[in-house]
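Handover notes (outgoing to incoming on-call)

Open items:
1. AB hydrolase-1 domain-containing protein: sequence verified, structure written out, both below. Nothing else pending on this one.
2. Nothing else urgent.
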Amino acid sequence: MPEGSSVGTVIALHGAPGSHKDFKYLYPHLHPSIRFVGLNFPGFGHANCCDPQNFDNVERQSFVRSMVIALKLAPAPDKSPLTDWKIYEDKKVIFMGHSRGCENALFSAVDFGANGLVMLNPIGLRPHRGIRPALALKMMTNLYDLPGGRFIMKPINKKIYDILKLKVPDGDQAYRCARTMRTVALADQAPYIEKANESSLKILYLYAGKDFLIENEIQEEVAKRYKLNRITSTEKTPEEEEKLLKLVPQGFVKGENGYSIFFANDTHYLNKDRAKFTAQCVSAMFGIS
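AB hydrolase-1 domain-containing protein structure tokens:
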């Protein structure tokens, strides 16, 4: 939908590793009047790296801002001071994140004045098992950066990601993923959560009980910080999902500000396993019943 949408736009932000393809199961279920844009952060296989590149949140947020402007959802910076820069009031935008991308979805939704925020398998406020021990990530990146280090570390980094069952095409992208995971904000998300609670954002926070990268208690700590209706789903059945599809989307249409849902028997890939549910909730967040 290159011409835009009068209903609203979803901007989806992937993790590390990740790409716009992380959301390929989701957007077909969206209402056809909703515009869906899956961004590809530079260096992850679909958008070229910039040299030098730090793979930190400053760069990621700058990239998101640039894309929001390119999509004509907000004014160019020279027409509006950055301190006052917001999405146009007549444009409805929901930021969606998966895993590492949830930090950037949160920052973008709060800073850019969005209408909604969707987080799937979000990382927490302290290190989870996927980025521990910190020394391992440090070695993967620092040794790679040494003269001649790329030649040695490229196959090693690829092997590490293969063992973790995280798909990357080669050791160079494994390095970029490791760099990206070294720069997570973690506890620095807390002020943004408070701002989100004080705002009019519609929020959907989904996390899973069998997430092999992020412990339940870490996600639970964050979920409790959001002032949302909390639901626990213990059955992974069509009947259970139908119940949720009646409850949650209708709640959004009626004016509820948000839901935190724990799917006890789901995995790190809620973007796939709960694609239909998430899409219908997003439609409801835009007021489509």
